[in-house]
Amino acid sequence: MNTPQNLRYTKSDEWVRVDSDDTVTVGISDYAQHELGELVYVELPEVGATLKAGANLGVVESVKAVGELYSPVEGEVLEVNTSTTDDPTIINNSPYEDGWLVKLRVQNPDLSELLDADAYAAYRS
Question: Which of 38, 79, 95, 114 lies deepest, with the highest CB count within 10 Å?
Answer without folding.
Answer: 95
